[in-house]
From TrEMBL:
Keywords: Iron, Metal-binding. The lineage of its organism: Eukaryota, Sar, Stramenopiles, Ochrophyta, Bacillariophyta. This is Uncharacterized protein. The keyword Cell wall biogenesis/degradation does not apply. It holds the Pfam family PhyH. Residues 1-20 are annotated as: Disordered. GO terms for molecular function: metal ion binding. Its cofactor is Fe cation. The keyword Calcium does not apply.
Amino acid sequence: ETWTGIWSPWPKTPDTMSDVGGDTNLASVRSRAAETLTALEATSIPDDHWSWIRKSMFPLPTPPSPLWSPTDRTRYFDANGFLHVRAFVSPQVVEEMKNEMRRLAEELWNPGEEGKTRVFRTDEGQVEAQGSDDYFLDSADRVHFFAEKDAIDEDGKLREEFRGDKIAALNKAGHGMHVRPGAFHDYAISREVGSLVRELGWVDPVIPQSMYIFKQARVGGEVTSHQDSTFLFTEPHQTCLGLWLALDDSNLENGCLWVRPGSHREPVRRKFARNPEHFGGDRSAPKMVFENIASSENLRKVPWDGTLPDGSDPPCCDGLFQAGFVPVECKAGDLLAFPGELDHLSLPNRSGKPRHTFQLHLVEGPEAGVKWAES
């Protein structure tokens, strides 16, 4: 197992470059990304170590503390807001997860049945699509399925081209994948996951949510700029940890993750919260809404929250770089770990290759003095 925030430029991958503007543009984006990531790696991290999860300074101990001592990986994670661990799981684990997901979808998802065809959105239609949908809101301890908006026709049915392969229409499955016995559960309680989470400084980690993201070839939608703590809000401080496991090679062609280094030090801007209008008696109002909780000054600094920065489009993605984002390409089996306040997104997948991922979200539990926000 190795890690990087950077290092070598990614290997050239065969692709259909007409989708993103040609080899020259792709090479330019990769070069800019490598320059940014290399600079992060070269930046000296002060000996006084700031722990994101513990919200305090930790001078590097000499000799190491018998309880917890930050490693080089921990220091990089806390300084920059993400950690790329290469070959975190074996190819066998990757295949087991993909096979189990296909089996679950074949057995449990029947998009022709009333109430089963739901679309998942992260754009301006998110509150309408998910804010009052019990199928979405009741999925915490089970496996529910959500389709890509471009795979559903105006009548809410699968478009004809997906009827022979319904799985190709899926956006995601969640949010209790880790609850069911099988490959996802085994991974969630694995030594590898537990060891990394402890290394990063979590004391009483619990798993409230897991999901499988398909990012399908050609119809895989964008995931707009967001902070995971918007949806997994804890008190008295934020403790969400995202573990983003690549099950396919994830690259510029098929919609890899873009992160904004250092943004994990910014406050949470929005909270997905219970709507007082609905629970006050107006049943026509959505159950859940986005509540702005940051100062107006902080909101002005990130005008793209919930959308994409202007100029994000391939092939050049200039707007993303100008806003401070950088793409992190991964091989199947690689892991990206990042705190819940990190700003991140991904672009649509218009390539001929899918980009499957399995994602765990953890938060600190009561033994760490942390609780869910009441709203």
